[in-house]
Amino acid sequence: MSLDWASLDKDLVELIGWRVLAGDLQDYASFRAVCSHWTASTVSPRQRGVVDPRFHPRQWMMLPEGHGLYPGHPDLRGFVRFFNLSTGAFVRARLPLLDDHVILDSIDGLLLLHRDHDTAIRLLHPFTGDVAEFPPLASLLPQIEFPHSYNEQTKRTGLMSVIASVAVGSTGTITVMLAFDLLHHVAYATTGDQRWTLFAWKIEPLLNPVSFQGKLYAMQMICKEIQKFYIYQINPPNQDAAEEQSHLPLPVKIAECPMEKFLYTLNFVECCSQLLLVAYNGSSRSKLIIYRLADLVSGKFEPVTSIGNHTLFVDERALCVSFSPNKGSKNLPSMPPNSIICLNNWPLNPDPEQSSHFEQYDLDTGIWSPASDGNIFQRPPPSPHTLIHHIFTCCHRKYWNKGLMFCVETEPFWLVKEELRYGA
Fold this sequence. Notes:
Layout: H1 3-6, H2 10-21, H3 25-32, H4 36-41, E1 60-63, E2 79-84, E3 90-94, E4 101-107, E5 110-115, E6 120-124, E7 131-136, H5 152-160, E8 162-168, E9 174-180, E10 185-190, E11 197-198, E12 207-212, E13 215-222, E14 228-234, E15 252-258, E16 264-271, E17 274-280, E18 288-292, H6 293-297, E19 311-314, E20 318-321, E21 339-345, H7 352-355, E22 356-362, E23 367-370, H8 387-392
Parallel strand pairs: 19-21
Antiparallel strand pairs: 1-2, 2-3, 4-5, 5-6, 6-7, 8-9, 9-10, 10-11, 12-13, 13-14, 14-15, 16-17, 17-18, 19-20, 21-22, 22-23
Helix pairs in contact: 2-3
């Protein structure tokens, strides 16, 4: 490196660093590592990884290992793999907290953890090690009226089946909202709280909750005379308010959608800083359709005809990936562009093992094709598996922690040696 580059003005180095960070956190870490002057001229992610949203690793997703090795399994010795949704790059991070925690959710690349012995909730930045502390989940038990049929195990399952959102106030206060889709409730807590607070209202049923830009979005299906889908926006309490709020915000109904527009919805998915809704366009379930949430809010029902080079993975949760060999590792296959990969449930059958086909839908042609060989419900599933199959496991909680994991045998097909580290 030349002396001129090494002696750039500190303010200019800092400005360039922020622009690099807008692309990806790993690029920012590499930028800071160029020389001691650039390291000293830029802000370290450490101790700011959670409280500063600029350092959230939004492009990174935790990748289950397969072979029944959920994140935190003793055989992994504390290491967890992550992949970049835009470049296809793979890294490993060592997460000692997984010795006695399980992963409940991933929000903007942050991991929501549940501590085994006392149900405390913690928000972890996997690459900087920064942690935000939240109250025990058990503090919600006196606030929820469970159905009489619930035993201790079903109560635990209901409380640990969550979709979370994270909002950071201007003062650095972190608010986490938890949507319990099985219980139709939402709760919140901020750093420093002693317990979780349950919102008094319920949305029943609470369908497909998703986190987007610090808020939660969910659907409600009304099947009586009106036959509509309602879409709600759930805002966190304003923790920057000078005075304590006298009441918690109510969910805001932002869209009403006639049911004939999409009879069977799959899920919301974030793509290119927009929230999309993926659904079947008719009772035959032969075609998929995509709407922008912003269009539905404005009353427009014009389907999205193309998502470019992106591929949507849709199931219990949803991901958008957009990498090809020339953007990441040359050894990784490219994703099928302008496609949706999901379990295509046809013909209608109550047994998913008999009716679900792991397929990809081409938005250009409207044609379905197999996404992998064999029935993925088979135990053990057929092998070898493609990268597509492994990414699809990111859409299922059962692959994330020991409480939900069944023994899944998968074929190893890559070795990742790079580890992601950040300097001081």
